[in-house]
Amino acid sequence: MLSFRQISHFSIAGFTVVFVSHLDPCLGMSEVVGFKDYSSAQIAKLKKEADSGNQALKARKLLGIYYFQKKKFLEAIEILVPVQDGLDKQGIQLLSKSYHNQKNYLNEIRVLEQWLSRNQKDYTGIKDLGDAYLAMGNRIDAAKTYQLAIQVNKKYEPAYEALIRVNDDEGNSAENLSLIQDMLKIFGGKKLYFHRLCEYYYTDGFLKEARGYCQKAVNSDPKYPDSHVILGLTYRDEQNPLRYQKVLTTAAKQFPNSELAQYMAGQMSEDLKDIVSALKFYLQATKADSDSVRSWLRLASVGIAVKNYEQSLKAFMKACDLDRSKALEPFRTAVSTLRSQGVNQWYKQYEESVQKCKYLTTIVRSSKVKDFTIKPTAEEKPNEKGDDTSGMSKGTSALPQGLKPLPTSGSSPDGTVTPTESND
User: Fold this and answer.
1) Distance of alpha carbon 299 from alpha carbon 316, whole angstroms
2) DSSP assignment of 184-196, as one string?
3) What is the pLDDT at residue 345?
4) Which residue has the higher pLDDT, 21 or 336?
5) Domain boundaries, the chain
């Protein structure tokens, strides 16, 4: 859909205002140009005009835009609330997003519900309402609201993306498979969809379908490491060790800064009893993501196996610093191993360090990673559309701990929520 401009001219407070808005549903936000550098005299005139006269509504909206851009959200709320019933779409967005940025979600919901009671086809407003529910932790109503936005406009991609994120958090990959298949039909074969289908099919144990979409993902976007890794894992689960080893080794070389690629290459090396290579990969994994508890723990455990006790101890303590609850048990296992092997000097140091770890007060700050080491059995059930999936190849696959979020529409780098685009 092509973007277009709406240009409005009006005179207010003794000077001419040119309001320019770029509207493009594909962009996910509305840019408001100007209004940032008013003089104090101009602001005073606008405030005076806002209190009375025929231009009050326009003056208040203009001040609302000014305050919003300056991130003075309370001022924006105070100036817009008295004229809420007369606000147009953008004015409602300014008011609701000001509440959102103040974390006043109840009032945001109230404003949006009142607006939507009169504008039931406003799919961007419906999506914003879902965002407000989600911000409050109400995932059920958020999901229902995103579904409603899709029903109103099946070509509004941000609603699909938002619903996918909710399903990700709930571990509902089956629902997302259906959603993304719909998106493929509506929006075409975007590389992001191939990456997601690669992972979702693998998660649900459909190895043939996963391999096909992983290959498409790798071909269309070869710089994204996860699909390379999952492609290799499909070969692992289909008992094709040569392809498994080749793909994972290549991925590890190609993506030194991918914790997933390095960690899974370490797992592969352990499977092949190549402990030296495993140590190298786990060490690189900790460099790729210094907050990955699992990488520090595997580095520590493999370090014990190769008798690199000093490096292993440092790795255990790093893991303990990140997340004591995950580090204590393998740390204690290492102590038992050293004791049984008669490594008395290091055994005492490890035992003392375990006690430090046990009573260490830590704030869990480990990174969220995908775990492809657990292999559940695939669920045998039709997808949400009722399509027959009995012909799909089913196998055992790994269970990832969530997916990378889709690009977030309407958010600035500092986390401030901005007004979304207007409807056509």
Assistant:
1) 8
2) HHHH---HHHHHH
3) 87
4) 336
5) 1-88
